[in-house]
Every structure is written in structure tokens, then in C-alpha cells.
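Two quick folds needed for the group meeting slides. Do the first one here.
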Amino acid sequence: MIKVINTKFSDVKIIEPKIHFDKRGYFFESFNQDEFNNKVGKIKFVQDNESASSFGVLRGLHFQEAPFEQSKLIRVIKGEIQDVVVDIRENSPNYLKYISVILNEENKRQIFIPKGFAHGFLTISESAEVVYKVTDLWNKKAERSLKWNDKDLNIEWPRLTTVKPLISEKDEQAALISQLSSD
């Protein structure tokens, strides 16, 4: 069983599993297609991905353009991250607003991010392992990145007040939101 928690974006959901503890440890269903369809929406995931990052690694903000957009279901199996979701749907009342949640191996929460949102995360523990499901395959030509520190997005990264993030060359060269809007 899962508990679905609404966020300020009606389509973005936090998924909280029911965890069964006993003297041996714990057990929970990390994904159940029928329950997900009934409580979140009918979604077909086509690929699972995994990444490992050290403290201070910032990945994102990533998305794919239509018709290759991806919905994602993100969870952390080791460590802790600050997960950020930005609404990039131009006709949305929440356009360019973001939410930030902490996902970690302790709370076992997941976040469902539908198409139309950019996504990124910052590793805030010594290391983190993140797994996620996507609804479309990666398409290099449709891949896009937004600057994590774009002043128009004004994302708060509390851990970055004293630490410089480690980011990929691709993310260093990411676009500002104003550059995407004018294309």
C-alpha cells in the first residue's frame, strides 16, 4: 500500500510506501503498477535508471522536449538528496515555479514528476544512489537542460551557501529559461 501526498503542483505527487518492520529488518513494495494506476494515474514506465553521486553533485535541471517528454518516478536507495521539480509548462498557472523535497533512504519517499517539468537534484549526504523509472526512452536530440542557478527560477539550494556544486560539462552549458522561451 502506498500513501499519495499532494504537492502545490496538482500533477506532481509524493509517494510514501507502507514499510513492514520486524526483527529481520524491513520490507516494502517499491512499485506496484495496479496501485500506482489507481492512486496516481495510468502510466506506463519503459526504462529504469540508476545513478550514484558524491556529496555536492548537482544533476539537472533536465527534461526532454515533445514528443519525447518523460514522466519520472524518483527514489533514493542510499543517502539523501534535495530533489527539485520546475514547472516549465508555459500555459500553467505555476509556470517557472518549483518545489523542493528531501528524498532519502530513511523516509523511502518517491516523487512522481509528469511530463512538462524539469528535474534535478543535489546530493546532500556523503554519497547517494538514485533510481528512477521513465515513460519514454532517452533521446539525445530532445534532451534539454536548464541552469540550476538561473535567477529567473530563483531556486533555493540551502546546502550550496558554503559548497560549490560539482556539475557536468553539459549542465555547465545549460540554457537559461529566457533562452528557451525565445526559441
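Then this one, please, same format:
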Amino acid sequence: MPDVNWLAVLAAAISAFLLGGLWYSPALFGKAWQRGAGLTDEQLKGGNPAKIYGGSFVLSLVAAATFAMFLGKLPVGTATAYGFCAGLTWVAASFGINYLFERRPASLWLVNGGYHTLQFTLYGLILGLWH
């Protein structure tokens, strides 16, 4: 098993959580995401916040830890570039395939794909800085 800096993994997961809070806020892309996802204000108020936010954080930890294992110890510039590429060409492109078959709007793909591209770019940056 590769040597993983678990504090860096935790910081990366936290960065994704904070980015998501900003990215999906009304100040940035929250309303565009809501329209694209077809969710009403009432639907957004429902659900189990502990499950939604707790589950999202655990999944961010899993993604950051796995990406740290994938990266190993790389210079910060290379790790950041790999993060950008992983977010854009693995995650966002895979979402794009699903969205095409699901007939989802391109605007939703741009919001979600953009988030995950920046999420993995941040992962690379943070993991590269702390290697």
C-alpha cells in the first residue's frame, strides 16, 4: 500500500466540502443546478441532512484517499495537473455520458462536471503540497 499522508487526505476532503458549499450556493451555481436537476425549493428542504452531508463527506474522504494512493509522491504542479485531468476526463466525462443517455440538460453537466474538475484539482494541489 502506498504511503499516504492522512492529514493531507483529510484536508483534501474538507476542501471539496467547502468548495461544494460555495459552488452550489445561490452566489454561484446553486440556482442553475437546482433548475437543471429539476428540484423545487420544497424538495431541497426535505431529506436527512446528516445522511446527505455526512455521506458526502465520507465519499469525499474515500475519493481523496484513493486519489492520494494513485498519485503517490509527485511534485505539486504534476499532482495538480493530474487532479485537473482526473476531474475533467474521468469524472466529468463519465457524467457527460450518463447525462446524454438520461437526456439531462448540458447546463447541469457543466455545473456538476465543473465542480468535480475543481474538486480533483484541489485534491491534487493539496496532496502535492503535503507529499
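Slide caption for protein two: The chain has six helices and no strands.
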